[in-house]
Amino acid sequence: MQNKLPLYFVVSFVLLIVLAIVSLYMGVYEFNSSFSEIISSFFVENSAVSQTDQYVFLNIRFSRIIMAILIGSALAVSGTCLQGMFKNPLATPDLIGITAGASLFAAVAIVLGVYIKPYIPEAMHFSFLSIAAFIGSFITMSLVYKISTSNGKTNVIMMLLSGVAITALGFAVMGLLIYISKEEQLRDLTFWNLGSLGGASWTKNGILLLVILIAYYFLIGKGKTLNAMMLGERDAMHLGIPVEKTKKQIVLFTALLVGTSVAFSGTIGFVGLIIPYILRLIFKSNYYIILPLSAVLGSILLLGADTISRTIVAPSEIPIGILTAFMGAPIFIAILLKQKKSL
Amino acid sequence: MLKGQNISYTHKDFKILSEIDFSAQNGKMITIVGPNGAGKSTLLSVLSNEFEKFNTILFKEKTFKEWHTGELSLHKAKFSQQYNSDIPLLVGDVTLMGRYPYFENNPTEEDLKAVENAMKQTDVFHLKDRDYNTLSGGEKQRVHLARVLAQLDNEIQNKLIFLDEPLNNLDIYHQYKILENIKKFTQKGNTAILVLHDLNLTARFSDEVFLMKGGRVVANDVPLNIFTKEIITDVYNFPCTIFENPVDKKPMIFFGT
Lengths: 343, 257
What we know:
The complex is a heterodimer. Chain A is mainly α. Chain A contains 14 helices and 2 strands; from the N terminus they run H-H-H-H-H-E-E-H-H-H-H-H-H-H-H-H. Chain A has helices spanning 5-25, 35-41, 51-86, 98-116, 122-148, 156-180, 183-194, 202-219, 223-229, 233-238, 243-265, 271-283, 287-311, 320-338; strands spanning 149-150, 153-154. The radius of gyration of chain A is 20 Å and the shape is globular. Chain A starts with a helix and ends in a 5-residue tail after the last helix. Chain B is α/β, with parallel strands linked by helices. Chain B has one domain (2-222): Rossmann fold (3-Layer(aba) Sandwich), CATH 3.40.50.300. Chain B has helices at 40-47, 69-75, 91-96, 109-121, 137-151, 172-187, 199-205, 223-226, 229-236; strands at residues 2-11, 14-24, 29-33, 58-59, 62-63, 76-79, 160-164, 191-195, 208-213, 216-221, 240-244, 251-255. In chain B, the strands form 3 sheets. In chain B, strands 6-7-8-3-9-10 form a 6-stranded mixed beta sheet, with helices on both faces. In chain B, helix 4 (109-121) crosses helix 5. The longest helix of chain B is centred in the C-terminal third of the chain and has 16 residues, at 172-187.
């Protein structure tokens, strides 16, 4: 099975491209020209394509699709890595409170941002937001890990309960901020809880891409390491696996991935739960295969969900977090039923 | 080939090991025995580099810190008790992990051969396509033994294997089989350090015995000199009689009055 990985990867990637092209065509806005005309209009001067068409195609639709691909991938990979580290299929950024921690800090950054924004250059605004979210997810991740792990063994109950605790705290602070905030901030804040890719822009995509490239450089090759860690940290160490270094890297880079994703799209849950679960049904818990594949399948999932979210009740949108929750909750229940004996 | 001096280990105000001197030569099968709580597993952990603070242990004349981690796992391996680990993989995949120090992405023919040999040695080859989680305790134990044996299947001389209670959950046939395999391993110039509970098996197979009690090494000698009525009755706090084993003339310990 390990030899077939490139094949699976290529097949999934092709699927993603096909889905992306299909999604380009779907949506509320009616284009006046055909797509080939619009695309060529970027390279040719004085074409007949309207500026509105160009704008919508590039800055709204195409950038949104790219964002869905990037964030879907980031969330799926984060979920898979966390599950490897905690050795449990329920360890996902949202269930253990990391998403809540990130959105908490991001919300605070938004409210505080009003006072600080005049002093910071425009380009830094988004960075400020994603840095705040990253700090939030990093602190939360370290906290959850410290509470729930001792001697290399994860107490799953503690892990999930610390997630509950942190999510509750986030909810409380969020409620307070909503209460004291002004109109514009209110709109921003409520979108955090449900998630939306509507705010996609090329600046955000650029930051996301950078973060993903850095994080994946360290994380994507960790399949074999995560497999070995299933034997327990001690035995993994005897196999020559650098366990402590690996854990630090997973904590740092998943916090980075989740933080940045939450900063730009709010709370989109369950992606990190659904994708590894589906992959495990096919490949068992072989991280060598499911880790790289989750990067592509996450994109497919989120892109598909986003396309549905903006077309099913056109012209309005169902917040994407609702769709992923509908998909994820049954899977959560399925995992619980399977784990009944060991939990 | 392995040397440690004045090893002491305290955990939360409790002295688990006190001033232990340990040394092992090539080609020897050494067993650590003693009553519960004597510190046997802890000593094995210290000697196998599971605690980072001990940089006074010398393995092949180098401290563990001086060893390169990847290189080290080709020279030494440890079998530990797997307490209820759920591993959602096939048996073959679990055993293959023993060869992780040898390949980056894909196992070679050599790796697959090593895994096959190890699985045949511990009699789990016929289980290789089964789900690991569906195995019995003894079968899982043998899978991990195979993994550890596969890890040390190479041309390096004078390797070191640690085994912490490898016979738990095993039936008589497999207990003897694994001890015979370890004996053959040491006869090629390698060293094995085991923790066992069964004193008779220890007497039959070991070249050297370390008898521990209360965190100290009470005696360290060949089995014939360790397994005497006075020493064993005192350490285990239970009456015993020593006979001569009719099969190979080694000491045979009979407990009770």
